[in-house]
Amino acid sequence: MKKCRLLSAFKQFLFMGPALLTGCVNVPSGVRPIADFNIDRYLGTWYEIARLDHSFERGLTRVSATYRLRDDGGIDVLNRGFDTRTGRWKQAKGRAYSVGEPRAGHLRVSFFGPFFGSYIVVALDSQDYRYAMVCGPNRSYLWILSRDKVLSGVVLDDLLAQARGLGFDTDALIFVEHDDLG
User: Fold this and answer.
1) Predicted model pTM
2) Which residues, 6 or more positions from 97, have their beta carbon under 8 angstroms from its beta carbon?
3) Domains of the chain, CATH where assigned
4) Looking at residue 173, what is its pLDDT?
5) What Cα–Cα distance (Å) separates residue 157 from each residue in 2, 78, 162, 164?
């Protein structure tokens, strides 16, 4: 009897496993990744200017993300932020790979083994790569990023208008504090 249940569970995993492992690389309805994305220009450090709240960054300030090319053609990701509750730095290491066309701004990112989520660049300073707006597989995830710790009000207002137009709750954005303590 146990063997039969184990075999049944294994068959269910074989059927559902691929969907579970790749199901979070979707693009929200009405959202499109930018079409002329150059990963080499995107590499380096970005500072988080604003984000929608989620548990894995709750309470963090001075948040940055650093992207470096991997030997396998993917990207190493290092997210770092200061936890105001503990007074300590937290970091998460991950890896990312292009989804579909490499020139599209759509990556799949993993911080947890074989589980990947969408990283969709929906707006980008295509001339200088100084700012970007990124979302996840649904409208619960949104980040506004900049190469500098401060983003001009004009650019920020434009990105907020774009985000609202795409259906994101910009009133719920958390604006991230940065200072020179590290």
Assistant:
1) 0.84
2) 73, 74, 75, 107, 108
3) 28-175 (2.40.128.20)
4) 98
5) 60, 28, 9, 11
